[in-house]
Design a protein that fits this description.
By secondary structure, the chain is an alpha+beta fold. Helix content is 18%, strand content 31%.
Length: 128
Amino acid sequence: SLAPPQVWIPDIPKAFTSWRSSMLGVEAESIDGQLAQYFGVPEGVLVRSVADGSAAARAGLKVGDVVVKIDGKPVETPREISIEMRSLRPRRTFPIGAMRDRREISLTVTLDEESESDRRPDPREEER
């Protein structure tokens, strides 16, 4: 299985690193420092947008949630979320831990059957 070409992102402050997951249907970014304190976490991955009808939307993930765990394992960056989700294959259903209103909630995510297609670029990426 060929890995997709990796887009090189220069080492810039984390707050400016937006991440999109076509598997989950979210755009998100790592947060730490004052922004993380505001959300009541030491660090985590802030959900910036949720695509309608996506796995994240069906699970109840909302804009402003901060993802802190995938399948019970702590995650602090989008990259760690990707790694955990890949390690869970072929499982399609797993819990996500998120902070909402400074309380940790657990949501059950079920990925679409065609989640394998996530290896191909998302055609919507072209519209930017």
